Amino acid sequence: MYIDSHCHINFPELAARMPAILGKMEENKVTHALCVSCDLPTFPDILQIAEQYPHIYASVGVHPDYEDTPEPTVDDLIRLANSPRIVAIGETGLDYYRLEGDLEWQRERFRTHIRASRATGKPLIIHTRAASEDTIRIMREEGAGTDAGGAAGVMHCFTESLEVARAAMEMGFYISFSGIVTFKSARDLQAVAREVPLEYMLIETDSPYLAPVPFRGKMNEPGLVRHVAEYIATLKNVPLEQVAQQTTENFFKLFKIAH
């Protein structure tokens, strides 16, 4: 079986097709999915999905790209995370690719999420793009990760270097690969995936974005995460069943879900 460790099925283009989305998951043996929060106004919709479907879990957080949105406090995140259906804090992190200017507000938002993670004991979902140096620095400064006594987490939709992956794994973080790893242009990322141990790996879709080959350019959905697993199995020259089993076990272990 497979688990989509990061999706956005609350987004309108997927939420409108929920029965079909869930059916595709079942058809492809995708047993669980984690619906990830991007802002506070849409968080109630995410929580409702997780409460309605027992195999869907949720997170609470505010994406680093979202400028004009209510800013969370540590107390806000702690309060909203007080549900067994909320298994993580995030997604959070830093993104210097799309935004310019003084981004100190983004770094402060990241620190807020790390502090909420430490307070709740729920793992972090970290987004980093063109900001890996500051991301790792702030993780260390704020005590993110098990090496500092905090909760662990995952570097989602990973596209950074092997050095960044190793730094994150040293702090107890998992590395999650999306459909990007299947792209012909992603040779550097494929080299990283070969080196990341399965014991530290998750798979995801980040749907509705980044559909894996052979669906690239189409709308992504959780049922397609098996294609990420299949590609990684080929890349690492291991049985598909091994990738499926290990990434599934990693998901339940990281997010402290009984199975």
In short:
This protein has a single domain, classed as Alpha-Beta Barrel (TIM Barrel), CATH 3.20.20. It is 40% helix and 17% strand.
Description:
Helix 5 packs across helix 6 and helix 9 packs across helix 10. The chain has a single domain, classed as Metal-dependent hydrolases (TIM Barrel, Alpha-Beta Barrel). It starts with a strand and ends in a 5-residue tail after the last helix. 49% of the residues are buried. The protein has an 8-stranded parallel β-sheet. The protein has 259 residues and is an alpha/beta fold. It is built from 10 helices and 8 strands. Belongs to the metallo-dependent hydrolases superfamily. TatD-type hydrolase family. InterPro entries: DNase_TatD-rel_CS, Metal_Hydrolase, TatD-like, TatD/YcfH-like. GO terms for molecular function: DNA nuclease activity; hydrolase activity, acting on ester bonds; metal ion binding.
